[in-house]
Design a protein that fits this description.
binds 3-methylbut-3-enyl trihydrogen diphosphate, binds magnesium ion, two-stranded antiparallel sheet, 2 strands, about 325 residues, mainly alpha
Length: about 325
């Protein structure tokens, strides 16, 4: 958990460990995002230049280095998972009618829905094309299962949109598919490509799954507690989009019928014109919605921490430990 100087690894120190690898990954993404149609290339470049934390490739690279040596295959696969992530964001912003992504107008706003959907399709296929170079069925199996899980997550979310009675279990099922599945696949692929045995691969995948769950819970908390300038996307957005997330689920368990009505009104209106966002925040505060959701996130973090603790200590293991804290404490 501690670096040479005895303090927990910082984000910069983690980045230092994978900086060279990550540069290669960025090159691979640029190289592989060139299509014979300009729109796709332009959209890929726009998203790549727009920032993003590169959490998924970092997780894959650290998982590979934890187990063994870095290979060209792991670099390529880190590019693949980021490309899949990008494709899901492009489609997600169409589905959510989003306005902003990574602090800039989202692709659906700049290029429209039709072009964005097709560019997303192209990116998915390109990611699979690159993955195919491993000539490995396990890799394809993981990636296909993962992509289907993510699509299922988005479909389930659509079905459950604007449902004020969404249960905690239903919410968790969404988060599992939407986010944790990809985190888990990153650790699985990284460790597999570095030569991990089945048990080790699964244990690391399990660690990353818990990390992914915590990550999405925190993302949903930040939607209530952060500010747009830091987050890179509007706040209060989930409820406006009809998404009932964990802080709200918890608050609604103890809410009065008037408070419930406030939520119902926002869900029905799809905006904060008759019920201002601050009223929703006050209700969350009264029932400790954010606090309780944060505790739940922390329990996933604790599980992740315990699992990564079963691996031998080295700089990469320490980095993965530190990431669990960074995910929980982040502000964007
Ligand atoms: C956004 O993921 C989608 C979610 C799972 C919440 P990130 O927050 O990792 O997005 P970027 O890549 O850093 O922009
Ligand atoms: C993110 O989902 C996209 C996927 C994980 C498929 P959300 O719609 O919840 O996240 P943001 O808020 O747009 O990043
Ligand atoms: Mg969205
Ligand atoms: Mg969405």
């Amino acid at each position: 958990m501690f670096s040479k100087t005895g303090h927990p690894l910082t984000a910069r120190e983690i980045l230092d460990l994978v900086r060279d690898d990550l540069e290669k990954v960025e090159r691979e993404i640029s190289l592989e995002s060139v299509a014979s149609v300009d729109a796709v290339t332009t959209i890929s470049q726009y998203l790549q230049a727009g920032g993003g934390k590169r959490l998924r490739p970092i997780l894959l690279l650290l998982s590979a280095r934890l187990i063994g040596n870095m290979t060209d295959g792991a670099i390529r696969m880190a590019a693949v998972v980021e490309m899949i992530h990008t494709a899901t964001l492009v489609h997600d912003d169409v589905i959510d009618i989003a306005k902003t992504r990574r602090g800039r107008p989202s692709t659906n706003i700049v290029w429209g829905n039709q072009t964005s959907v097709l560019a997303g399709d192209w990116l998915y296929m390109q990611a699979f094309q690159v993955a195919l170079r491993e000539r490995n069925f396990h890799v394809l199996d993981v990636l296909i299962g993962l992509t289907q899980a993510m699509v299922e997550g988005e479909l389930l979310q659509l079905e459950r949109l604007a449902k004020i009675d969404l249960s905690e279990a239903d919410y968790m099922e969404l988060v599992d598919r939407k986010t944790a599945a990809l985190f888990s696949a990153c650790a699985r692929l990284g460790s597999f490509l570095a030569g991990a045995d089945d048990e080790t691969e699964t244990r690391l995948a399990d660690f990353a799954w818990n990390l992914g769950m915590a990550f999405q819970l925190v993302d949903d908390i930040l939607d209530f507690t952060s500010v747009e300038k830091i987050l890179g996307k509007p706040v209060g957005n989930d409820l406006r989009e009809g998404k009932v997330t964990l802080p709200l689920i918890y608050a609604l368990q103890n809410a009065s019928s008037e408070e419930r009505k406030l939520t119902e009104t926002v869900l029905a209106d799809g905006n904060y014109e008759s019920v201002p966002f601050i009223e929703i925040l006050k209700m969350l505060n009264r029932h400790k919605g954010v606090e309780r959701a944060m505790e739940r996130a922390q329990s996933f973090t604790d599980k992740a921490r315990a699992l990564i603790g079963t691996f031998p200590e080295n700089p990469y293991q320490r980095a993965l430990v530190a990431i669990t804290d960074i995910v929980t404490d982040r502000d964007h």
